[in-house]
Amino acid sequence: MSFQSEVELQAMGKTVNLKSIMGLMSLGIYKGEEVTIKAEGEDEEKAIALLSDFMISEGLGRLA
């Protein structure tokens, strides 16, 4: 997914740019891990909504 906004994922005390697959992989997130998605920019609401929906549909999370 490509967004105009800067999109970050926070987990286990670390923050990575979600546009970097290597950054995401470096987190080593396990199923059930609590994560936070942050976005800032033109399409921030769309980015958070789409990423949240994707993660939930893949069984990777739930809304808090």
Give the key terms.
single chain; 64 residues; alpha+beta; Histidine-containing Protein, Chain: A; three-stranded antiparallel β-sheet; 25% strand; globular
Description:
The protein has a single domain (6-57), classed as Histidine-containing Protein, Chain: A, CATH 3.30.1340. The chain has 2 helices and 3 strands. It has helices spanning 21-27, 44-57, and strands at residues 6-11, 14-17, 35-40. A 3-stranded antiparallel beta sheet has the order 2-1-3, with helices on one face. Strand 1 and strand 2 (14-17) form a beta hairpin. The radius of gyration is 11 Å and the shape is globular.
Topology:
Blueprint lengths: L5 E6 L2 E4 L3 H7 L7 E6 L3 H14 L7
Antiparallel strand pairs: 1-2, 1-3
